[in-house]
């Protein structure tokens, strides 16, 4: 059975500048697909092709087995979209936006009241009076209120507090249980871990990897900083599996990366000496990309931080 969301050799160039190239992926019905990558990698271009906002240079995007075209209004009525950059009418109220978008869509806002209540949103206020978080709530209501079969979400919890983020996760999970299919673009690893079944990682316009969330998490990096009670030779760490990028900052303090599921091995080695301070933090999602999916000519990682690839010419984000 074909996927509900598909890209087949999808290619988009802005003049001579690459947006995406030869991108192929498939999202089965009722699943949540995380679409991940650094800024400028081609995520927004892909989403705009799926929505029929951009015409591909080559290849095609498909929804429900049908080719997406610029005039595909019938398909778009079955899709809910929450953009990463929200554009609203500043002088109008939230209620006006709900009625206006429902009219454009030709579909009743069947879930608008429920979403308003659950997100604690006041639809009587004008957009210019709203905080970033409340503008995000309105974008979520507009994208989800018609109970779409496909949800295309670009950083859907941006600007929301933890309580409202949890509410959004619950809403997405409920929609998936009811049969919806979700295409999620996010930089937040905890978000991906919470709701995604599978992820595609895009780099420089191409699909660099496609994995289950479990496999991706096995690749998770951790940043380790440890201080011992007395000076320690760097050879102390020899042979510890999963330990990389070891740096000695003082006679008794070390910084390193721990890869995959080897944290237990590292902690057991540390326990053989007296430790006075220990910090273990998850590396950023971008550092995971840079560590596992960079090509030989990519920007090198220095000083424990991943350099950010340059923004993609022609693509707004």
Structural class: alpha/beta
Q: Which fold name corresponds to the CATH topology of the largest domain? A: Rossmann fold
N to C succession of SSEs: EEEHEEHEHHHEHEHEEHEEEHEH
Low-confidence stretches: 295-317
Largest sheet: 6 strands, mixed
User: CA-to-CA gap between the ends?
Assistant: 33 Å
Radius of gyration: 22 Å
CATH architecture heading of the largest domain: 3-Layer(aba) Sandwich
How many beta-strand segments? Answer: 14
Overall shape: globular
CATH class of the largest domain: Alpha Beta
Mean pLDDT: 88
Helix content: 25-40%
Q: Which strands sit side by side, in order, in the main sheet? A: 6-7-8-3-9-10
**Helical element count?**
10
Beta content comes to 25-35%
What does this structure look like?
This protein folds into two domains: 5-217, 3-Layer(aba) Sandwich (Rossmann fold); 221-282, Alpha-Beta Plaits (2-Layer Sandwich). The model is unreliable at 295-317 (pLDDT under 50). It has helices at 43-50, 73-76, 94-105, 112-118, 132-144, 162-177, 189-195, 213-218, 263-270, 285-293, and strands spanning 5-14, 17-27, 32-36, 58-63, 66-67, 79-82, 150-154, 181-185, 198-203, 206-212, 221-228, 243-250, 253-259, 275-282. Strands 6-7-8-3-9-10 form a six-stranded mixed beta sheet, with helices on both faces. It has a four-stranded antiparallel beta sheet with strand order 2-1-4-5, covered by helices on one side. It is built from ten helices and 14 strands. With 317 residues, the protein is of the alpha/beta class.
């Amino acid at each position: 059975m074909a996927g509900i969301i598909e890209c087949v050799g999808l290619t988009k160039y802005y003049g001579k500048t690459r947006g995406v190239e030869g991108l192929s992926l498939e999202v089965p019905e009722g699943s949540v697909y995380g679409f991940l990558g650094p800024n400028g990698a081609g995520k927004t271009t892909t989403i705009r092709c799926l929505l029929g906002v951009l015409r591909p240079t080559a290849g095609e995007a498909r929804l429900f087995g049908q080719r997406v075209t610029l005039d595909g209004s019938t398909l778009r009525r079955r899709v809910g979209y929450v953009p990463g950059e929200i554009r609203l009418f500043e002088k109008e109220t939230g209620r006006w936006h709900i009625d206006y978008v429902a009219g454009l869509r030709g579909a009743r806002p069947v879930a608008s009241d429920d979403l308003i209540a659950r997100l604690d949103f006041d639809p009587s206020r004008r957009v210019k009076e709203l905080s970033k978080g409340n503008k995000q709530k309105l974008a979520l209501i507009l994208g989800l209120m018609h109970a779409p079969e496909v949800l295309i979400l670009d950083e859907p919890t941006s600007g929301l507090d933890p309580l409202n983020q949890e509410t959004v996760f619950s809403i997405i999970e409920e929609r998936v249980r009811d049969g919806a299919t979700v295409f999620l673009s996010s930089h937040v690893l905890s978000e991906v871990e919470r709701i995604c079944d599978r992820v595609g990682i895009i780099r420089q316009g191409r699909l660099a990897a496609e994995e289950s969330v479990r496999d991706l998490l096995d690749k998770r990096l951790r940043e380790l900083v440890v201080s011992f009670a007395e000076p320690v030779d760097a050879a102390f760490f020899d042979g510890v599996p999963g330990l990389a990028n070891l740096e000695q900052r003082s006679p008794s303090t070390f910084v390193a990366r721990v890869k995959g599921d080897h944290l237990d091995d590292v902690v057991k080695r540390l326990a053989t000496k007296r430790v006075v301070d220990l910090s273990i933090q998850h590396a950023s999602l971008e550092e995971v990309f840079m560590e596992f999916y960079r090509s030989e000519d990519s920007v090198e990682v220095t000083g424990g931080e991943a350099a950010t690839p340059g923004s993609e010419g022609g693509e707004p984000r």
